[in-house]
Amino acid sequence: MDSNTDPGRPNGPLTLAVDIGGTGLKIGILDASGHLLGTPERTVTPAKAKPADVLDLSLAMAGKLGGFDRVSVGFPGVVRHGVVITAPNLDNSSWHRFPLAEVLSERLERPTRVLNDADVQGLGVISGQGLECVITLGTGMGFGLYLDGRLLPHLELSQHPIHKGKTYDVFVGNAALGSLGRKRWNRRLQRVLANITTLVGFDLLYIGGGNSRHVTLELSANIRIVSNEAGLTGGVRLWDPIMDDAFAARSPGIRESADAHQALPDR
């Protein structure tokens, strides 16, 4: 996977971008500006996927692409310094405390950075001005928050209850869309957007994810639907200098924060 032997390669570092979803897995190569080079590889994520399932698929797909210099991963759960804490739409227990960044870096022989998948998508679409947030609609619902282009601490809003004990994940996830139909699902989404508007008071909100194409609501001027490809293209931003603090060496408080998540139930 050596990216330095091709005389026709674009200038600047090439990034292998990996977008791990509860139902789909996408991998592509990005140039230094975040543009996809060629067509991404796609496959279905196995039900209740374990680390070995995702790793085997990722490595096989990466082998079909060209060379790259570094790796960016969007993961559907809480991630602290490259270590997975929760994976509610995968096999949650087997992912807990899995050092995904370290393992992928060793297997691919490239430096690797891992963030929550909604955080990565947001990095691919935000303007960098004011308070911005992103939600992703897919297997569940992802959430990311940014202030003047800086990623704020991750809030796992998807696992917060919204109605009669249902989490946001359940309330507007893929299963709800399938069982309710588009019209009723959009009414639920309207409630979600109202809650987030009250909670965050954002300047701009972006809606991404595979199910964003089913949104039929009349959206306010500060809410926009964006391409789901940002889940890949946002990967180049993980290597911006502004992100270095987010990937600094683990502080003592990080381990305490990770231990606190052990009390979370599997979903």
Helix content: 25-40%
Order of helices and strands: EEEHEEEHHEHEEEEEHHHEEHH
CATH architecture of the largest domain: 2-Layer Sandwich
CATH class of the largest domain: Alpha Beta
Fourth-level CATH superfamily of the largest domain: ATPase, nucleotide binding domain
CATH topology of the largest domain: Nucleotidyltransferase, domain 5
Distance between the termini: 37 Å
Question: Can you give the mean pLDDT?
Answer: 90
Strand order of the largest sheet: 3-2-1-4-7
Main sheet overview? 5 strands, mixed
Strand content: 15-25%
- CA radius of gyration: 18 Å
Which structural class should the secondary elements be placed in?
Answer: alpha/beta
In terms of per-residue confidence, which ranges show pLDDT below 50 for 5 or more consecutive residues? 251-267
List the domain count as a whole number: 2
Shape: globular
Quantity of strands, as a count: 14
**How many H/I helices?**
9
